[in-house]
Amino acid sequence: MAGKVFFSVSMSLDGFIAPGSLGELMGRQWMELQRWVFPTRFFRQNLKLGGGGEEGRDNDIVRETFDRTGASVMGKRMFDAGEQMWPEEAPFHTPVFVVTHEKRNPWERPGGTTFHFVNDGIAPVLDQAREAAGDRDVRIAGGGATILEYVNAGLVDEFTIALSPVLFGSGIRLFEGVDAGRVALEQVRAEPTQRVTHLTYAVRER
Q1: Which candidate, 38, 55, 78, 73, places its Cα nearest to that of 162?
Q2: Amino acid 48: pLDDT
Q3: Distance of CA 62 to CAs 102, 134, 179, Å?
Q4: Secondary structure of 91-140 in the HEC alphabet?
Q5: How far apart are the C-alpha atoms of 69 and 128, rounded to whole Å?
Q6: Domains in the chain: ranges and CATH
Q7: What SS3 class is residue 24?
């Protein structure tokens, strides 16, 4: 049985998931947005940042998201940013399919991550990711424009937002340009923790 297609992102209270330019990644606002995930034990283990780290529900959610993911899809902008910041052993440990207009051979990294570059459009990318994922889920990793393309195409089953108590004022909005006349949401759960509120929704067609 095929798994779900989902995305999972951190979002500011005013609706932004990233700063407007790559140069602002890892800046103050970005660090505040992601503050909930950095201390978790699983995050530290996965990026090989040393021992320690916090247990608890935030840690469980990070681990559950990783465990359910059999393959990831991302846009070229996210890949370009990550290529500069990820460690040699990229933190996915599964196949990753990059939506791009370029032709490039697969890029294999230590630890089980192989980036595949697909220039046939979002549906063929997802088909390849589903096949690679088997009975596990496919995560649309980002960025915002790529997530929105999949939502508007009716190809996302579920998503989770970690709503962080931070304001951006500007940047990349998660739902800027969403086809609201087509997309309906059904709340699955809401889980507040000390640092964020995790909101999960099923996506339905109106």
Answers
A1: 38
A2: 77
A3: 32, 21, 29
A4: CCCCEEEEECCCCCCCEECCCCCEEEEECCCHHHHHHHHHHHHCCCEEEE
A5: 14
A6: 5-205 (3.40.430.10)
A7: helix
The pTM score is 0.93
140-192 tens-digit pLDDT: 998 999 999 999 999 999 999 999 999 999 999 999 999 999 999 999 999 99
Category of 169 on φ-ψ map: left (φ > 0), alpha (ψ -120 to 50) or beta = left
Spans of the chain below 50 pLDDT: none
- The pLDDT value recorded for residue 64 is 97
Rounded to whole angstroms, what are the CA distances from 61 to 36, 87, 155, 176? 11, 22, 23, 26
Give the angle subtended at the CA of 139 by the CAs of 134 and 143, to the nearest 5°: 150
The one-letter amino acid at 177: G
Token output for 166: 């931070």
Res 192: pLDDT: 97
- Token look-up 């190809």 returns 155
Are the C-beta atoms of 95 and 127 separated by less than 8 Å?
no
- Cα distance between residue 137 and residue 36, in whole Å: 24
Between CA 1 and CA 130 the distance in angstroms is: 11
3-state secondary structure 42-85: HHHHHCCCCCCCECCHHHHHHHHHHHHEEEEEEEHHHHHHHHHH
Helix (H, G, I), strand (E, B) or coil at 163: strand
